[in-house]
Amino acid sequence: MSIVKGNELGVARWKWRLLEMLPGLMSWGFLIGLVVFSFIAIDVVAIVIVAYAILWLFKLFGYSQRLVTGYRLMRSLKALDWRHRLQYVTKPEIALKQVDELLSEPNLTSVKRRALKPYRRLLEQQLSNNDEPLDPLDVRHAIIVAAYNESRSIIEPSIKALLDSDYDLDRVMLVLAVEERGGPDIQRTANELVEKYGEYFGDAWVATHPADIPGEIKGKAGNITFAAKQVTELTAERGIDPEHVIVTTLDCDHRVSSDYLAYLTYIYCVSDERYKKSYQPMAMFFNNIWDAPALTRVIATNNSFWLLMEAMRPYRLRNFASHAQSLKGLIEADYWYVRTIVEDGHQYWRMYFTYDGKHTVVPLYTAIYQDAVLADGYLKTFKEQFKQLRRWAYGVSDTPYVIIKSFRDRKIPWSKKFVQIFRQLEGYFSWACAPIVLAIGGWLPLVASQFNSAEIVAHRLPDLTGFILTISLLGLLGPIISSMRAIPSRPDHVSWRRNVSMILQWILTPFSLIIFGSGAALNAQTRLLFGWYLEEFDVTAKHRVEVPPEDANL
Fold first, then answer.
1. What is the pLDDT of residue 2?
2. 80 and 68, same structural domain?
3. Contact 336, 221 (CB under 8 A)
């Protein structure tokens, strides 16, 4: 049973169906409307398409600028010793004095200077808030690594990355959350890994999620919820305050940066109402980027940079893939919703309405490295890539929940709720429509004019939109340059010729956006439109990763 079928809000079925059909009706209505009006009102369609192209021209340059800024911020903050900074969490005035002394040094490197400035702003904010910071020594981490039936070669490097953390692992609980339905092999692998590496953590165990629990779909949410409840039981037995426990969820191919735990601990300790927040590191699909096909590399790089661009506007951030939050917040929100395949995005809304709109996602400008989609052969890889993006696009299924909860929650001002509803609808609408309109919209009136009296505007429109899109290609310079600097060094087994294809691959961007962008989004919305629900989590194929995360340039 999926979220769209699992209407726990007690709304009449016809109302719920109407709201879940709304995104598909908007997207298909707009696309079909452009085709129809191209035959009966060419001028109107031309104005719409030109306006849309100009809008996205400005958006693209804005995205590119935020990407470059975000990338430089990540590179700069990497230079900070967050573990050292933790000792000054309860003494920000001393830390601020030290930072000012460092900034006054004439020989300070530009990278270090850029890193200290955002850190200084954190200290100033902490002093102005007059909030009581949490002592880092009181913090405990629970790392939940979710696995289904992946091989040891996929999971073990993720655990090794945790071992390389610049943090005291005695304060870390490692939970390998595996599925009973994954078979005996994954159970044996998890037990062997805990036996081998468990001694390096404060606690380590295997949490086996039983199969076919009533009310749950076959998805990640049930697995990590089962594991998180075990964390709750253990901390309760030891008398640990749930607000002092930070829970991070990882897929089994996710590799944390060495500074992740210390950085997260610092931000968590100095945050006000910390348990009402989520903490979002940057997902970078670079683990096996050199081994993936060109088309998959483009998609993986764009996906990596999209979250970073959004992080430069934190008010727009949503939970995605790996994220962290307080155990207290998890308990009060009743963990994750076990009847949806999009547990990360839906978790944002659960927290948002649990705390009557007083929930934000705090960006962490540090990377968690993940696998690009890679399977046996190109065809299977592309199929797996489409299924992964369709699953992400299925976050559109949250629309009825968001709208209904907005109407019912009277503590959130309508000005804020309207913005949230608009972003929910506009985001998935643009995902589905923008690539198609920008790629072929300019030719619609020209084709339609062949069936009626020729219009000068119809013949000029392709040239005009083509000119606008040509200018917009300059906006790709930011992603291209950033990608070449951010990805790991080329491994020895990959030919130097791949460096050239890493640049030429960007000509595939329009194709990837239409097939794997619009196509995946329209597929998800069409399923909701007709009630063809996705009721099982499609586990993305994962192959052995060749490049360790420490080789990446972030």
1. 41
2. no
3. yes
Same domain for 306 and 415, yes or no, is: yes
CA dihedral 150, 154, 158, 160 (to 10 degrees): 120
Which amino acid is located at 550 in the chain? Answer: E
Residue 271 lies in a domain: no
Q: Specify whether 45 is located in the same domain as 92.
A: no
**Count of helix runs (H) and strand runs (E) in the chain:** 21, 8
47 shares its domain with 119: no
For position 1, what pLDDT does the model report? Answer: 35
pLDDT at 5 over 80: no
- Would you say 532 and 464 are in contact if contact means Cβ atoms under 8 Å apart? no
**Which residues contact residue 52 at a Cβ distance below 8 angstroms, ignoring those fewer than 6 apart?**
434, 437, 438, 441
Same domain assignment for residues 46 and 33: yes
Q: How far apart are CA 441 and CA 454, in angstroms?
A: 17
CA max distance for the chain: 80
- According to the 3-state scheme, what is the secondary structure of 464-477? HHHHHHHHHHHHHH
Host domain of residue 450: 11-73+287-317+374-554
- Mean pLDDT computed over every residue of the chain: 86
Q: Does 49 fall in a domain?
A: yes
Determine, yes or no, domain membership for 528: yes
Number of domains in the chain: 2
Go through the chain and tell me how many residues it has: 554
Query: Do 18 and 124 fall into the same domain?
Result: no
In a domain, residue 167? The reply is no
Q: 128, 159, 193 — which closes off a domain?
A: 128
| Rounded Cα distance, 64 and 42, in Å | 33
Which of 132-141, 267-276, 506-515, 523-532 shows the lowest mean pLDDT across its residues? 506-515
Q: 535 by DSSP, 3-state: which?
A: coil
Model confidence pLDDT, tens digit, residues 489-548: 778 788 777 778 777 787 888 888 889 999 999 999 999 999 999 887 667 666 654 444
Q: Are residues 414 and 516 in the same domain?
A: yes
Q: Using alpha carbons, select from 71, 34, 60, 47 the residue that is nearest to residue 513.
A: 60
60: number of Cβ within 10 Å: 20
The pLDDT of residue 545 is 45
Q: Which residues does 343 contact at the CB level (< 8 Å), separation at least 6?
A: 219, 220, 221, 224, 336, 337
Same domain? 528 vs 420: yes
Q: The tokens of 217 are what?
A: 């779909």
CB 353 within 8 A of CB 404: no
Closest by Cα among 517, 211, 505 to 388: 517
Tokens of 228: 């998180």
pLDDT reported for residue 382: 92
Backbone dihedral region of 2: left (phi > 0), alpha (psi from -120 to 50 degrees) or beta?
Answer: beta
Question: At 337, phi and psi to the nearest 5?
Answer: -80, 120
- Helix (H/G/I), strand (E/B), else coil: 396: helix
Could you report the per-residue pLDDT of 39-57, keeping only the tens digit for each?
Answer: 777 777 777 887 887 787 7
The residues near 192 (Cβ < 8 Å, ≥ 6 apart) are: 152
